[in-house]
Amino acid sequence: DQQVKQNSPSLSVQEGRISILNCDYTNSMFDYFLWYKKYPAEGPTFLISISSIKDKNEDGRFTVFLNKSAKHLSLHIVPSQPGDSAVYFCAASDQGGSEKLVFGKGTKLTVNP
Amino acid sequence: NAGVTQTPKFQVLKTGQSMTLQCAQDMNHNSMYWYRQDPGMGLRLIYYSASEGTTDKGEVPNGYNVSRLNKREFSLRLESAAPSQTSVYFCASTWRGWGYTFGSGTRLTVV
Prior knowledge:
With about 110 residues, chain A is mostly beta strands. Chain A is about 0% helix and about 55% strand. Chain A has no helices and 11 strands.
């Protein structure tokens, strides 16, 4: 049973536009959420995170929104750049429990020039 | 640079052969993890070690063993490789779960 779901395997946007990547989770014990970015032949790298006590966190062009009642989070990239083309993984953990990260299957973002 | 180092980067094995994937971190992290990434499957946890001397199974542990040699090193062993273990393997470490640092991966092919 998938606890973290990224239902869109791929997303294509034009350079300069907004990219919105979505993630849903089922485990109500999750209280810390992260986004990782992965380029081919490299390991995932941390992008941005949010604690369940917040509903929004910004870091430059990247903003993560958390809707706890809907068990949904999204990553907004504005404006999108060709260098943002990568696979994005949503991850969640229960910081009061095992601290293990549970990952979604990833969304491949392509930003077209 | 500080981080997580994995060796080897590439490996081809014949079915039934054994090998050990090595991982070392120099960030003084307590917890270390082994994940595998397969197309359309995301990152799946194989084994993890919450601290030196402890190891626990993750989501897909069958066919693997691990050793937490010391605080820095966490190795993954395939005793008898199978084609189903063809994958990209990532090691990661963290301090109290606040974001993982990943290695660059080992691409393993079992023929």
